[in-house]
Fold this protein.
Amino acid sequence: MRRAAQLALLIALAAGACFAEGNEGGGSHLLLWKWANFLLLAGGVGYLLVKLLPPMFAARSQAILKDMAESEKTRQDAEARAAEVDLRLAGLEAELGRLRADSQRETQAETERLASHTAAEIAKIQAQSVQEIGAARKAARADLKRYAAELAIDLAEKKIRGRMTPAAEDGLVRGFVRDLK
């Protein structure tokens, strides 16, 4: 309000100076109108600036304050999340240690399980091998007995053929025929 009064006083002084100059020359009437037009335009622009700029500046200040408050809240949220992440990281070392210990226990248990399974498989294979060897031995003995019997039969046949004469053959056939009757 005070500024508006100062502006109005300045305009009035300028207008008075124009009227004082206007009385001295002939083209002063035109100059007076130019100054009046300028003063009206300057007054209108000044009025609009005084009327519109303060609310615009106040709104801009409010927006800046609101943005600053939001930024502060965002910063605090980020700090809180960072603190939470730090807590998680601190607990992460303990969690990793626990996971390593669990992994070692599981690995040891798996190793023992595999060792016992392997031992059982080896025992099973050994028992099966013993059975297969026994079966192969029995089969070999049977083959050997059969071969020996074949050799004995062949040898006996050769001996009989060597002793067999036509007269002995006739005697055997007659004895066979007699037995049939």
Remarks:
- The radius of gyration is 65 Å.
- Residues 2-167 form one domain.
- The chain has one domain: 2-167.
- The mean pLDDT is 84.
